[in-house]
Amino acid sequence: VQLQASGGGLVQPGGSLRLSCAASGFDFTEAIMAWGRQAPGNKRDLIATISVAGNGIYADSVKGRFTISRDNAKNTIYLQMNSLKPEDTAVYYCSNYDTWGQGTQVTVSS
Questions:
Q1: What per-residue confidence (pLDDT) applies to 12?
Q2: Which of 29, 35, 58, 72 could lock onto 63 through a cystine, CB 3.0 to 4.6 A?
Q3: Cα separation, 28 vs 46, whole angstroms
Q4: Phi and psi at residue 98, to the nearest 5°
Q5: Long-range contacts (CB closer than 8 Å, 24 or more residues apart) made by 38-44
Q6: Are 70 and 50 spatial neighbours (Cβ–Cβ below 8 Å)?
Q7: Spatial distance between the Cα atoms of 1 and 25, rounded to a whole number of angstroms
Q8: How far apart are CA 104 and CA 31, in angstroms?
Q9: CB under 8 Å to 73, separation ≥6 — which residues?
Q10: Helix and strand tally (H, E) in the chain?
């Protein structure tokens, strides 16, 4: 199983970023997928989940600002992050609920 997140970077408060996670090594079309994040000194938190049918569920901390989506033809999930806040600063990871992939750093700062 390989899960490779990308798209992180430095963004100003109020800005947007789109993360991608390319998956391989398992049946992606039958997998519930998720994004999590971990800030320094904190535990990793699940923030968004997407069902096989494409329905998203969100943590309260990101609801209304983040959108999870998937492209089954590309074995990829996405996380569109809008209205970013400094407290969104973390390493972001994707998961198939069995494995966590390598993360991508998101820093929200002016």
A1: 98
A2: 58
A3: 19
A4: -125, -35
A5: 38/90, 38/91, 38/93, 38/103, 39/87, 39/89, 39/90, 39/91, 42/90, 44/93, 44/100
A6: yes
A7: 4
A8: 21
A9: none
A10: 0, 10
All residues at 6 or more sequence positions from 41 whose CB lies less than 8 Å from its CB, including other chains = none
Is the Cβ–Cβ distance between 100 and 93 less than 8 Å?
yes
Nearest CA among 85, 102, 84 for reference residue 18: 84
pLDDT digits (tens, 9 = 90+) for 47-96: 999 999 999 999 999 999 999 999 999 999 999 999 999 999 999 999 99
Quick one: which of 46, 52, 31, 43 has its CA closest to 79? 46
- Pair type for strands 104-108 and 9-11: parallel
- What are the φ and ψ backbone dihedral angles of 53, each rounded to 5 degrees? -80, -10
Checking DSSP bridges between strand 66-71 and strand 56-58, what pairing results, if any? unpaired
Tell me the residue length of the chain: 110
And the tokens for 84?
A: 């970013």
